[in-house]
Amino acid sequence: MYYSDAQFAKAVDEKLGNVKFFKRVMREHGKIKPYTQFTTNHKPYFQQIQQLHKSMIWDKAVRTVVPTMPIEKEVLTNALL
Questions:
Q1: pLDDT of residue 80
Q2: Bridge partners of 39?
Q3: How far apart are CA 53 and CA 73, in angstroms?
Q4: Which residues contact 17 (CB under 8 A, 6 or more apart)?
Q5: What's the pTM value of the predicted model, to 2 decimals?
Q6: Which of 63, 78, 77, 79 is nearest to 29 (CA)?
């Protein structure tokens, strides 16, 4: 299932700004392409960030989890072309 940023924020019960920051950091690390929508695959990573946020600031939690995420198939395919 695909989510807009607002739908994803509602699905994970988080502020829209935090969701957009998560997406921006994923792009910086090459995990997603521009204009990519969230999917159900992103939820566990976002929930992991929410757990880490209990003991650290949001920026640090996001930047800790995102590098551990796998690169999506289509991003990797395009990088190899």
A1: 47
A2: 2
A3: 28
A4: none
A5: 0.84
A6: 63
For strands 2-3 and 38-39, give the pairing.
antiparallel
Question: Look-up: residue for tokens 């600031």?
Answer: 57
The one-letter amino acid code at 43 reads K
Strands, DSSP E only, in 4-80? 38-39
74: Cβ contacts below 8 Å, ≥ 6 apart = 33
| pLDDT tens by residue, 22-61 | 999 999 999 998 888 999 999 999 999 999 999 999 999 9
Query: Which stretch of DSSP H or E encloses residue 2?
Result: strand 2-3
Average pLDDT, the chain: 88
Q: What per-residue confidence (pLDDT) applies to 20?
A: 95
